[in-house]
Amino acid sequence: MLCFAETLMSTCADLELCIHCQADGSYTADLRLQTPDSAVAAELATRQPVPLDFARLRQLGLDPAAYGRELTGMVFAEEKMRQGWLQVRAYASGKEIPLRVCLNPGLSDELHALRWEKLYDPEYQTPLALSEQVIFSRILASPDLTPVVIPPRPQLRALIVIANPTDLAAYSLAPIAVAEEIARITNALGSIPATIIGDYPDAVQPRATLPTIIEQLRPAPEAGSTGPHILYLVCHGRLVDGEPYL
Fold first, then answer.
1. Which of 181, 176, 222, 213 is nearest to 195 (CA)?
2. Sign of the C-alpha dihedral, residues 43, 47, 51, 55?
3. In the chain, domain spans
4. 5 Cβ neighbours under 8 A, 6+ residues apart
5. In terms of pTM, does the model score above 0.70?
6. For 14-72, what is each residue's pLDDT tens digit?
7. Is 37 helix (H, G, I), strand (E, B) or coil?
8. Is the dihedral angle over the CA atoms 93, 51, 114, 145 positive or is it negative?
């Protein structure tokens, strides 16, 4: 597992929220906390029932706030899940460190289809992904056993891609504030050098086409060189006949 934020911040509390599909079609959840001052993760909740109602969530697809609250109510339906979350928030707050929440839905396509990024803080009823104290990410499991080796920070390189087509109005989409997006990510990257694709003065290419992105992701010609270690993509997304497109 590699969270993007792991390359940017070393001192934080890591909460892994795992969702499991059982043989009978039901779902359960685990809460596991890894703290900077312990080599062993704390099991806060194990195999707690999660009454996921996919039909209800589909009905709320056009109401992000209602969707998030409904999904939050399902995930934290059990008292042990709620108490586990309160413990985690209290720990991170007491230590004055960020809380990194990693959502792990395994390999289930049905679970990955849910909008986990809409989850709310069950205590404060605010969106998790919008909190300055919470770093939210989703784990993408893979059957590929090829080891992933992350070099030390001084050797890391990033690729920033901002897709801002000129014909967005034809699709009723708002333009992206390219300069603001680049300022945010370069500030987060700090000393990590970045190559930029997008409508920006320092960009290597002005348009974020697929061939351009692939070219920049390939290893550089120099011997022993690798491609970027971090890809930061900003683009529009929408559902067309039930299929997601970027």
1. 213
2. positive
3. 4-138, 153-245
4. 12, 100, 135, 137
5. no
6. 999 999 999 999 999 999 999 988 888 899 999 999 999 999 999 999 999 999 999 99
7. coil
8. positive
